[in-house]
Design goal:
Length: 275
């Protein structure tokens, strides 16, 4: 039987995404760095705290984060594992509602405030419209998560960022899908006086043809769309019932399966079985 493998858009096998919490004023500088190097990511905001202290204002959210993803981080940043279900529902849904009014699209992801989560909370989230949630412990690896509601990043930006970036840039085995996922808080660069670290990282890893630069939700949506592909029993053809174009490697050939289309895969062994 032939070999069919999922690829990222364009037939790539590597993706990079960034994840930053709290919506502090230093996000302005961080977004500027990302934009200069073509890096894309997700910013998890507490809508109930916007404009307070050094946080970005509600009025600037849409323009500031254009081209990136705005995601939930709860309304007021409580340690939600200690909260009753009723408060968790309010914190998540009201954060979604306010953020959606600001950005004009559906907010479907979050990062856990203070890294606080539990099985009880994870079971609540799908009913609240949350499709992924990032945790704090890092994996040090470059894989996709088994559980989108316990999505481990590769690393915090202060933990082996450049050595991991060098390893990631050198990954070449196309039988694997690689994802580098970096998280943190933008204010940490001010506190640690190390903005040059993010400049170095983005300049070294940005602008590469073999990397898909994506937001958190784009990765979730892409993988879920792939899981909805309808393959024939013989693997001779596939139908894509979604609106998302999916790329496959079919016996080493890169094939794009456009949304709503059925595509012949021309796997010789599968076809021969029908003769």
């Amino acid at each position: 039987m032939g070999k069919i493998l999922l690829c990222y858009p364009g037939g790539r096998h590597k993706a990079l995404t960034m994840s930053y919490d709290d919506g502090q004023g230093a996000d302005r500088r961080l977004v500027d760095i990302f934009n200069r190097y073509g890096i894309r990511g997700t910013f998890h905001l507490n809508s109930g705290l916007l404009g307070e202290s050094d946080r970005v204002t509600a009025e600037e959210v849409r323009a500031l984060y254009a081209g990136h993803e705005v995601s939930a981080h709860t309304l007021t940043h409580p340690t939600i594992a200690r909260c009753p279900n009723e408060q968790i529902v309010h914190e998540v849904m009201e954060d979604r509602r306010r953020l959606e009014q600001l950005v004009g699209y559906t907010v479907r992801g979050m990062s856990y405030p203070n890294g606080s989560h539990s099985r009880r909370i994870r079971e609540l989230l799908p009913g609240l419209g949350i499709e992924y949630a990032r945790v704090v412990p890092s994996s040090g690896q470059f894989g996709l998560p088994d559980d989108w509601l316990q999505w481990q990043p590769t690393c915090h930006h202060n933990h082996n960022l450049m050595p991991l970036a060098e390893t990631f840039a050198g990954l070449h085995k196309t039988q694997y899908l690689y994802l580098m996922y970096v998280w943190g808080h933008s204010y940490e660069f001010d506190n640690d006086n190390n903005w040059e670290l993010m400049e170095e990282f983005c300049s070294s890893i940005g602008g590469r043809d073999d990397i898909w630069y994506a937001t958190n939700i784009e990765i979730v949506d892409y993988v879920k769309a792939y899981e909805q592909l309808k393959f024939s029993a013989s693997l001779a053809f596939v139908h894509n019932p979604t609106a998302t174009n999916i790329w496959l490697s079919v016996d080493g050939r890169i094939i794009e399966v456009r949304g709503g289309e059925q595509v012949q895969l021309n796997i010789s062994e599968a076809l021969n079985r029908l003769e």
